[in-house]
């Protein structure tokens, strides 16, 4: 009886705490947000509404943006403003760049996973990392090194898909790409042969799964008003995040230790080695934790965005076979190859930098894919001071403002009545202003090399033509449940 009484008290107390917390949030939400002031963006709902629509968040935001390009959700501490108006985006990213930071909410949301890496910080730390990374991306040594790595990865990927093509079996293209791009970024970024695609690294695969789990759990913080309570109680998504970070940290700190030992033994062309050398000048601030954060941020840029974009690209080509064939013809014209070419290494050798530069239709098709399925579907900034957006709406100091890349790619007032159609003849630029993507050319180079190799040797189609493909809510736009394809050989590879 005493046990039952104790359990009842615990249950009642827990319910009371949750209800009290919800009441507290509700009171905070409706306090001092200028709800009826027409100078501010119109209020659509509260943060709870985002929570209830989190499984289809970007489509939900897109539907609102069709009639209200800029709108607002109320939350306990500040207003959450969302915009699909390109004038506002330019204002935030370029015109008034210094008034919009990651802010305390963005920093706290990302801190456990990405720490003080370039995607999670502002100010001097952001400038320092950007300066060093942008310099490395601009060097001829890294360019040549990455080019060699990407061609090797593409050749290996052709070999794996050839086995499925000959057997007639379907495969998860996204999973294969995630492993391939993880191998590539570890080689280029950290000078390590990981071997995930080959199945040689069980630790690498565990790290990849943990990082993807952490990515999803971190993303859920944006719409979950209860995430701090979950974190305190160590339950749900926050419990999964904690377990994932333990696996991530063990793997990354081991990598840093190994690289430090190797630093003086050989010539290093990878990005991590450059940061390790830099850390020797300032060991107090550039400690192992800081290097860990840099590694994970580089990995987000090098693995997730590229693999996700290529997955959506192949999906769009399966849905638009005429575009797929048009790209194949461009590949043959540019490389002077023909459909009977069976030598994979010989074909890869023909994919020169000059050839990549001539692949204009492929470039456009990749850009068109990212218009409809941007690698990062929405971005958050925080107003450092009161401001007025170009559309006339006021922003208060401390307000969070999100520009919705996913919605912007679907707005008829930006792209015309055919906004939802896949037309490679138009394309969307990746970023603008001081935070423009410094790895943009790097990413396009890898995507083009992989695309040319795969499309030259195979025709792709959906494993199930009737399957519905959707996204998984993460910091980056992954295909939910993977992308299951069939490959048909174009040659006798």
TrEMBL record:
<feature type="transmembrane region" description="Helical">
    <location>
        <begin position="6"/>
        <end position="30"/>
    </location>
</feature>
<dbReference type="InterPro" id="IPR002401">
    <property type="entry name" value="Cyt_P450_E_grp-I"/>
</dbReference>
<keyword id="KW-0479">Metal-binding</keyword>
<dbReference type="InterPro" id="IPR036396">
    <property type="entry name" value="Cyt_P450_sf"/>
</dbReference>
<keyword id="KW-0560">Oxidoreductase</keyword>
<keyword id="KW-0812">Transmembrane</keyword>
<dbReference type="GO" id="GO:0004497">
    <property type="term" value="F:monooxygenase activity"/>
</dbReference>
<dbReference type="GO" id="GO:0005506">
    <property type="term" value="F:iron ion binding"/>
</dbReference>
<dbReference type="GO" id="GO:0020037">
    <property type="term" value="F:heme binding"/>
</dbReference>
<dbReference type="GO" id="GO:0016705">
    <property type="term" value="F:oxidoreductase activity, acting on paired donors, with incorporation or reduction of molecular oxygen"/>
</dbReference>
<protein>
    <submittedName>
        <fullName>Cytochrome P450, family 704, subfamily A, polypeptide 1</fullName>
    </submittedName>
</protein>
<keyword id="KW-0349">Heme</keyword>
<keyword id="KW-0472">Membrane</keyword>
<keyword id="KW-0408">Iron</keyword>
<dbReference type="Pfam" id="PF00067">
    <property type="entry name" value="p450"/>
</dbReference>
<comment type="similarity">
    <text>Belongs to the cytochrome P450 family.</text>
</comment>
<keyword id="KW-1133">Transmembrane helix</keyword>
<dbReference type="InterPro" id="IPR001128">
    <property type="entry name" value="Cyt_P450"/>
</dbReference>
<keyword id="KW-0503">Monooxygenase</keyword>
<feature type="binding site" description="axial binding residue">
    <location>
        <position position="437"/>
    </location>
    <ligand>
        <name>heme</name>
    </ligand>
</feature>
């Amino acid at each position: 009886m005493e046990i039952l009484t104790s359990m009842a008290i615990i249950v009642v107390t827990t319910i009371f705490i949750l209800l009290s917390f919800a009441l507290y949030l509700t009171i905070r939400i409706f306090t001092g947000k200028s709800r009826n002031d027409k100078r501010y963006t119109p209020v659509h709902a509260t943060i709870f509404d985002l929570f209830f629509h989190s499984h289809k968040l970007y489509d939900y935001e897109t539907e609102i943006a069709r009639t209200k390009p800029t709108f607002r959700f109320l939350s306990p501490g500040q207003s959450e403003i969302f915009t699909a108006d390109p004038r506002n985006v330019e204002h935030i990213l370029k015109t008034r760049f210094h008034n919009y930071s990651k802010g305390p909410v963005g920093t706290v949301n990302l801190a456990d996973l990405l720490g003080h890496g370039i995607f999670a910080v502002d100010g001097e730390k952001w400038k320092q990392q950007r300066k060093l990374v942008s310099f490395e991306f601009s060097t001829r040594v890294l360019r040549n090194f990455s080019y060699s790595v990407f061609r090797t990865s593409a050749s290996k990927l052709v070999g794996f898909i050839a086995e499925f093509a000959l057997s007639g079996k379907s495969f998860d293209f996204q999973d294969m790409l995630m492993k391939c791009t993880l191998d590539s970024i570890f080689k280029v970024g950290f000078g390590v042969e990981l071997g995930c695609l080959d199945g040689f690294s069980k630790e690498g695969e565990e790290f990849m799964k943990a990082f993807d789990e952490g990515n999803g759990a971190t993303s859920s913080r944006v719409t979950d008003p209860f995430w701090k309570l979950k974190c305190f109680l160590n339950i749900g998504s926050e419990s999964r995040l904690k377990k994932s970070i333990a696996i991530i940290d063990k793997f990354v700190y081991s990598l840093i230790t190994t690289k430090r030992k190797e630093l003086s033994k050989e010539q290093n062309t990878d990005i991590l080695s450059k940061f390790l050398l830099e850390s020797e000048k300032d060991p107090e601030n550039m400690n192992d934790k800081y290097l860990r954060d840099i590694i994970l941020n580089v990995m987000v840029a090098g693995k997730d965005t590229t693999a996700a974009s290529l997955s959506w690209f192949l999906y769009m080509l399966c849905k638009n076979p005429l575009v797929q064939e048009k790209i194949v013809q461009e590949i043959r014209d540019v490389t002077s190859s023909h459909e009977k070419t069976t030598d994979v290494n010989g074909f890869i050798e023909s994919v020169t930098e000059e050839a990549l530069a001539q692949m204009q239709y492929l470039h456009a098709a990749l850009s068109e894919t990212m218009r409809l399925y941007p690698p990062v579907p929405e971005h958050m900034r925080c107003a450092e001071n009161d401001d007025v957006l170009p559309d006339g709406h006021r922003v208060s100091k401390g307000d969070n403002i999100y520009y919705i890349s996913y919605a912007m790619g679907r707005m008829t007032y930006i792209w015309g009545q055919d906004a939802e159609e896949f037309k490679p003849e138009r394309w969307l630029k990746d970023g603008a202003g001081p935070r423009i993507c410094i790895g943009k050319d790097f990413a396009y180079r890898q995507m083009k090399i992989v695309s040319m190799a795969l499309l030259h040797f195979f025709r792709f189609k959906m494993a199930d033509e009737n399957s519905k493909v959707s996204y998984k809510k993460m910091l980056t736009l992954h295909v939910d449940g993977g992308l299951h394809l069939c490959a048909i050989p174009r040659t006798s590879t």
